[in-house]
Write a structure and sequence with these properties.
The complex is a heterodimer.
Chain A: H1 25-41, H2 44-65, H3 69-92, H4 97-101, H5 104-110, H6 115-144, H7 151-177, H8 184-210, H9 216-244
Chain B: H1 2-8, H2 11-43, H3 57-84, H4 87-119, H5 127-148, H6 152-184, H7 199-231, H8 236-243
Helix pairs in contact in B: 2-7, 3-4, 3-6, 3-7, 4-5, 4-6, 4-7, 5-6
The chains are: A mainly alpha, B mainly alpha.
Chain lengths: 247, 245
Amino acid sequence: MPSNRPTSRDLPGDNAWEGAPSSGALAYLGSQFNRHLRASLRRPGELLNPLVFFLMVVTLFPLGLGPAPEQLSAMAPGILWVVALLANLTVSGRLFVADFEDGSLEQMLLARHSLALTAMAEVMVHWLLSGVTLALVSPLFAAMLNLPSAGIPVLMVSLLLGSLCLSLIGAIAAALTVSLRRGGLLMSLLIIPLNVPILIFGVAAVSEAANGYNASAWLALLGAFACGGLVLAPLAIGAGLRISMDT
Amino acid sequence: MWSVIHKMGSPPWFYRFAGVFLRWCLPLALAGLLVGALWGLFIAPPDFRQGNSYRIIFIHVPAAVVALAGYYLMAFAGLVSLVWKIKMADTAMRAVAPVGGALTFIALATGAIWGKPTWGAWWVWDARVTSMLILLFLYLGVIALFEAYENKAVAARACAVLALVGTVNIPIIYKSVDWWYSLHQPASIKFTGESAIDSSMLYPLLLNIGAFYLTFACVVVLNMRAALMNIHRQSAWLTQELTHP
């Protein structure tokens, strides 16, 4: 796995983590963001994984619950959000693993800028490539489950904001378990209880909108959670990565 | 204040303190539990609507209260361990987790037993039941993370971060579950009004809550002492304490 992964040396003009004296925190964040984005885009197969997972699991529900359109459309908000949560769970476990295995993380620890900043660049890329793409494709899945069309814009916005929260929480758990060989099952135990509010807000927003009500209060709550997470989660992610590298 | 904290951080001092604490508080806690149980079972009057089945409240409520307080205590110990790097706080955090998890389980189990005659079902997705279930998951997460690490010093710091993240999240989880409940289900089931509890039931309940707190403290101190003896099994001070108490 680490062998075919592009490292900083393969990417031209990108040695920013050594900290060129003139580069500020924002420039550093930008260069880290670029590095992760390009590294991830070189493995397009992994980008599709959450979407394929989503498609597979969404297919299972009509098979399990029966194809009746009314029943599916009543359950669609819950199904879509639970599957989005699970799709996020499957990918966030790998979040820092590659950087940990090839030693990049140690270099980031030695950089002039805080580890939290570096980690945030990676989380943002992760969100962009898993959460945002999922939100963009979600109308397709909504149609498959017969979600009323009034719910679709709210579904997209709620997934956009909610997946940011999911990625931030997932990153905390990933940072704490990155040095463990068998972190997979542990990740779900750590993440799922913390994700409960996001699921509740997201499902409430979509079902209110699908029933023709105003969902803005729930979306505002998701936004508030995302803002709070953006401020607080980097502290926990940075601390978690530092602890993981002590082992 | 500071000297007390520093003393608390010294394993030999804590070992001796634990001995004194347990000698006085363990009998008191057990007596409290016994008196509370007898008072609750035999002296408190039956509820006019629920009859005798309400008596499980004398275990259910104290367990739930102490379980929630235990999580905050664990997170506080984690904070102390992260900020001041006091090893004893690690031990405390590790000692609280299984006790708190067990109390959460007791609260859930007694709730289910109480729910069967009162609500007609073992399990109801009530807001409080769901919150307690999530609290149990949070405890299990901390325990599982601690067990997953080989190096226990690192494990304690990882658990401290997790417990703090959980602490920030707990109020949000509780509030969101409240809203979820009010959104999805009409309030068909209500607790029989806690504020209106009669003093003949309130006093044994308060006694039981106090006894549960004290028992919790004793079990945590016992756990901590056992962990200390394990960590310092090679130390000279422990040999001396054990041979010349």
